[in-house]
Each structure stands twice: as C-alpha cells, then as structure tokens.
Amino acid sequence: LLMLIAVISLSLAIMNLLPIPVLDGGRLYLTLLFHWVLRKPLTKKIEERIVGTAYVIMMGLFFLITFLDINRFFLD
Questions:
Q1: Are 19 and 25 in contact (CB under 8 A)?
Q2: How far does CA 15 lie from the centroid of its chain?
Q3: Using CA of residue 32, residue 38, residue 39, residue 42, what is the dihedral sign?
Q4: How far does Cα 7 stand from its chain's mean position?
Q5: Which residues, including other chains, have CB under 8 Å from residue 25's CB and lie 6 or more apart?
Q6: What totals of helices (H) and strands (E) does the chain contain, helices first?
Q7: Is the separation of the CB atoms in 54 and 22 below 8 Å?
Q8: What's the pTM value of the predicted model, to 2 decimals?
Q9: How would you write the pLDDT of the chain (76 residues) with one tens digit per residue?
Q10: Quick one: DSSP state of residue 22?
Q11: Are 67 and 75 within 8 A, CB to CB?
C-alpha cells in the first residue's frame, strides 16, 4: 500500500511539472521565460490571460477528443 501511494505521488509530481501553462510547471516555465527574455517580472494580469487562454484551449481539445471518441465508438 505504501509503495502504491509513493508511485501515485511521484507520477502526480512529474505530471504537475510538465510545461503546460495550466499546470504549475507551465506557470514556472512561463514566469522564468518571460523574466529571462524581457528582463522584467510577469504581471499578474498577463499571467492570468495566458493561463486562462491555455485553459480554454485545453478544455476545447478535451471536449473535441471526447466527442470524436464517442462518435467513433457508437457509429463505427
């Protein structure tokens, strides 16, 4: 049981550090990249817009893929 908990925690940590703007790793990379390129900190408003846009795109892809899978399952 302890091994299962450790594997789940480790996989969650790795997934959370992926450079996807909706996840924490994406926010980290976004902040570091913006600061490295422009030499000034990222404002909260710009960060919220970037993350919000990425969230909408990811949810759109999620629904599109789900819709296509359901169509393929029932129509084929």
A1: yes
A2: 9
A3: negative
A4: 21
A5: 16, 17, 18, 19
A6: 3, 0
A7: yes
A8: 0.68
A9: 999 999 999 999 898 888 887 778 888 888 888 888 888 888 889 888 988 998 999 999 999 999 999 999 888 6
A10: T
A11: no
